[in-house]
Design a protein that fits this description.
By secondary structure, the chain is of the alpha+beta class. The chain has 3 helices and 7 strands. The radius of gyration is 14 Å and the shape is globular.
């Protein structure tokens, strides 16, 4: 689990995982997916994640990962982050 996600996951009473889009380019070992999961904490408060993850893998391990949400997520989706080929395998440009 990514270090940044650990506090949310360990504090969750329940998690409803929901990956709504996923694209994989096996030749370049890259993938992009949209995570719209919901967490419920110990007090019953519900929190929703809505973001796009872009990952590059080597030898079965993630070696680079980017996470986009909000306006930047919308921009990356409009630019074709889920498309196979150049848009996916070239990776995302550095954040603005």
């Amino acid at each position: 689990m990514p270090r940044e996600a650990e506090p949310f996951i360990t504090a969750a009473k329940s998690i409803d995982g929901n990956i709504t889009r996923c694209s994989v380019d096996a030749a370049t070992e890259t993938c992009a997916f949209r995570n719209q999961s919901t967490f419920v904490d110990e007090t019953g408060k519900s929190m929703r994640i809505d973001g796009v993850h872009w990952q590059r893998w080597t030898s079965g391990k993630i070696v680079e990962e980017r996470y986009y949400r909000g306006d930047l997520m919308a921009k990356k989706m409009a630019e074709g982050i889920f498309e196979k080929g150049e848009a996916l395998s070239a990776g995302p440009a550095a954040p603005d």
